[in-house]
Each structure stands twice: as structure tokens, then as C-alpha cells.
Amino acid sequence: MVEVGTPAGVLREAAGLQSQGRLEEAVSAYQRALARWPDEPDAWYNLGLLLRRLRRFEAALDAYAQALRRGVSRPEEVHLNRGVIYSDCLRQDAAAESELRAALAINPAYVPALQNLANLHEDLGRRGEALAAYERILELDDHAFETLARYAQLTATAEEALLERLRAAIAHPAARAADQASLGFALAQLLESAGRYAEAFAAASTANLASRRSGGAAARYDRAAQENLIDALIAAFPRTGVRTPPAVARSPAATVPGLPRPIFICGMFRSGSTLTERLLAGSAQVAAGGELDVLPALLRSTLSPFPAALAAADEAALSGLAERYLQSIAALFPGAACVTDKWMENFLYIGLIRRLFPEARIVHTTREPLDTCLSIFFLHLDPRLPWALDLMDIGHYFRQYRRLMAHWQSLCGEAILEFNYDELVRDPRPAAQRLFAFCGLDWNEACLDFSRRSGSVKTASVWQVREALYQRSSGRARHYARELGELAAYLAESQSSAS
pTM of the predicted model, to two decimals? Predict the structure, then answer.
């Protein structure tokens, strides 16, 4: 029997709390134990894991550092975890790279660190270094299916040998459904680049089925639930009295000097949001925040379930929420005058955003609907976005998104700029100038030159947005007229009924 007053007993108590999901209590238990018995590296490591889950990133880094100092086993894993926090949570790419290289100095064959380093090279636009890292992983692991998929997409050459290699990997007995999905989307991309459109669509269809298998029950899209959510959002922000209450307009969060001004970018995936953000980042005033999950995380902790919980929230609570958001982005991007937030489902929160930040600019990115839906169908999104795994489910989600955006437009009017991808690539300068004017930014001609732009990009558009503006993605759906016939009719039906 292990006594509670011993290190093993207290740590077992902490682990039990952790397994029950009582994370704050588990953190307190670990901290109490480590105050008495600080030379427990595994406890420091577990504390770091918990603090990261609680989004207390600096504290997590400190706990991991203690684990390293106390001689934790597999220190390369600790360096990897620190690298992921620096890269994904704190946006400190140089620090992330240093941690990953520290992991590889300990274990040069540590595949997870190699994979993350390759991903970081891609984010930073280092194609050669990323390819070299992927090739090293493939040398070390015959079953590195995700790496093979990334490697194939990065080479972007539809050589028959590579296509066959992808097909063989998909059929390999060791390939899980998630692996088959990644490989299938890579295969579809290469086939499309070769103009083999029917084969490409078939490969994307199979990849989406594999992605759904990998997600289990969570990968089933509930159309009725999505319609109910849109109904609830519209009801929570009715057309009467939507203007921001004076109490919120006077919120300290909106006026404290030194806090950045957010620019919210929203719309469907693959609608040009990353390109829009890269344009804005051409201004010295703007830091590209990317897909920030700050607002959704705050809502989960303070206004859940949303939007139902909004009815009980007073203005003090909303002002506190606004200030916590601004403090969070200020910590991520110190000194920035403006920060873009392109979490794509921001379109669900526009009513709340207008209440929290009355002066915020909201940029709604749009693109030809069939091109948008097709691009999503060819994109390997998380299976926890179940609407993205079937062409007609994508169409249904698109129709509900369009219904909600029409409501927000009727409420917010000039506070939302519709910024169309197809118009931008046809005639970039006037479209970009309109965007800058809307956001209150001085025009900068250099914003149109992407080839010399530094900084990381952490979306599927990582390579496209580093090129000069091009029109080849506009009209993509014309290559799939037969496959998209039912979807085209479905979207046209909703548009005609709305008008």
C-alpha cells in the first residue's frame, strides 16, 4: 500500500485527478508534491503537459525545463514538446527550431522532431530544407505514410513512379485510415496538376471516405444540428437593437493604449483568407496572427454553451472577455498596432465580435461558390470538421454559412467588407487598396510582392501565398462539371430562394 504522504502517493493522487479531467486540481496536486519533492522529473513533465492543455504556455515551458534539469528520461521528447509550444502556441519560430535541433542532437533518428522540423521549414518557406528532412524520415521509417504524403505534395511533380508509390502506400496493410486519407489527398493533388481530373476527383472521394473512417462517430455531420445552431445565432442577435450597447463601447479593453486592434478575417476555408492576411501583413502596422483559436477558447471557458450562455452575461463579463482576448493577442505579438485573426469560423461569432469590439474591422473573404466547395473537398481537413468530408455536406454547410452571413450583413452593414478572391487576382491593386482603406491602413505598394515576404505561414496555402498573384485557381470547378452537377443545382436553388 502506497501512503498518501509519500512522493508516490501524492503523485498517484495527481495522476488520478488528471485522468478524471480535473486539470486544475491535478496541477495543484503536482505543485504541492513538487514543492516537497522537487527531484521528480516525471512529475515536472506531467505538470508541463497539464499546463499546456490549460493554455498556460510559459508555465508549461518552465515545468518542462525543470524536467530536463532533473534528468528526465527521453529528454528529446521534452525538447519536442517545448518546440511545439513555441511554434504553434507562442509563434516563436526561432525558439521552436532551437528546441527541435536540441532534440535531434540527443537522438538524430527521432522522427517526431524531424517531422516537426520539416513542417517548420515549410511554414517558413524553406522548400529545400523541408524536402531534405522528409527524405531523411523516409530513410528511417518505411511506414512514414504522413511524411510521404507531405513529401509528394511538396515536390508537386506527377511522375508515374511517385503516383505508384502513393498508391502502394495507400494499399499497404500497415496504413491506417488516417494515413490513407493523407496519401489520398496528396495523390488527388498530383493527378489534378497533371490534368487527370476524373482520376483526381476519384482519389479525393476515396480520401474523404478514409478521413471519415479515421474520425469515427465524431466524423458524422448532423445537418439538423447545424441548422439549429444558425437559427440560435440569428435569434441571439436579432435585427432590432443590434447596435453595440454604450457600456461595451466604453470598455477599457477597447481603449487601453498598447493593446492591439484586431482585424477579423472570416469566411469559408479556401476562400482566400490566407492571401488576404498576407496582403495586410505588408503593412508595418499589422502582425499576421493566422488561425488564432483565442476567441473560441475563451468562449469555451466563459460563455459555454454559446450562444445560449450569452443571455446571462452582463456587460462587465463581456468587457472582461474583450480585455482577456486583447491581452492574449498582445502577448503573442508584442508591440503590434494591429493583429489579424483569421480563425475561419469567426463568421459564427460576428454578432459577438461587434459587441466586444465595436470598432473592429471584419473582412469577409469570398470566392466563386463551386470553386470554394471543390477546394475544400480536395483539402485534408481535420475529421472533427465532419461537414468537409462529403461534397453535398459541404454544400449544406455552405448554404447555412451563407444564410448567417446575410443576417450579419443586414445587421452590421459597413462594418463588414466582402473581399472577393476572384476580383483580387483579376485586378490586384484596386482590390488591395480598398482592403487597406477599409482597415484604416496606409497603402503600401510592397504588399503586392509576396515573393520577398518573410514570416511563417501555417495553413494549407503555405506555398501558394508565396508566389506572385495568379488566376489559375479561379474557375477550377470547370474541370469537374460532371462531378459537380448536383452540388451546382443545390447551391443555385438556395441562392434563388434567398433572392
Answer: 0.84
